[in-house]
Amino acid sequence: MSKTLFYNTVFCDATYELDISGLLIILTSNYSNVNEMKDRLGLPIFYRIDKFIHFNEFDEKTIYDITMSEIEAHVKECGGKFSVDDVYERVSPIIQATGENARTIKNKVQEIIENILFEEISQ
């Protein structure tokens, strides 16, 4: 069945028959270089990738901007039960200046918000 996806314009399995002639597959990964991708993916898949786009790590300003955006969205969502400054004061020590991505920042902000809300109902 996997040969169908790569060698034909129609993908068939036990349930579906699809025209995939215009199919675009987007892969994301955390591999640090092309050789690591070859080793981990294997050459048959690697050589079917037509375009590689390298993304640089976020700089400190981008990390700050994403953090503030996440905080502001949560403060608004929670109806002002706490301030942006209160959340930032608690989340900033756990967000690193490098190596963060939008997902890790979002999770850390969410964790702090949940802690604040839990503390509020526990009082």
What does this protein look like?
By secondary structure, this protein is mainly alpha-helical. The protein has 2 domains: 2-46, no CATH class; 60-122. The protein is built from 6 helices and 2 strands, in the order H-E-E-H-H-H-H-H. The longest helix is centred in the C-terminal third of the chain and has 21 residues, at 102-122. The radius of gyration is 22 Å and the shape is elongated. It starts with a helix and ends with a helix.
Brief summary:
The protein has six helices and two strands, in the order αββααααα. The chain is mostly helical and about 120 residues long.
Fill in the keyword field for this structure.
single chain, 6 helices, mainly alpha, 53% helix, 123 residues
Question: End-to-end span in angstroms?
Answer: 58 Å
Count of individual domains: 2
The level of helicity is 40-55%
The tally of helices reads 6
Instruction: Note the main sheet.
Output: 2 strands, antiparallel
| Number of separate strands | 2
Return the string of H and E elements: HEEHHHHH
Average pLDDT, rounded to a whole number, is 87
Q: What Rg, in angstroms, do the CA atoms define?
A: 22 Å
Category from helices, strands and their pairing:
mainly alpha
Q: What's the shape?
A: elongated
Q: Order of strands across the biggest sheet?
A: 1-2
- Classify the beta-strand content into a percent band: under 5%
Low-confidence stretches: none
List the helices and strands and how they pair.
Layout (H helix, E strand, L loop, with lengths): L1 H6 L2 E3 L4 E3 L14 H8 L1 H4 L13 H18 L6 H8 L10 H21 L1
Antiparallel strand pairs: 1-2
Helix pairs in contact: 4-6
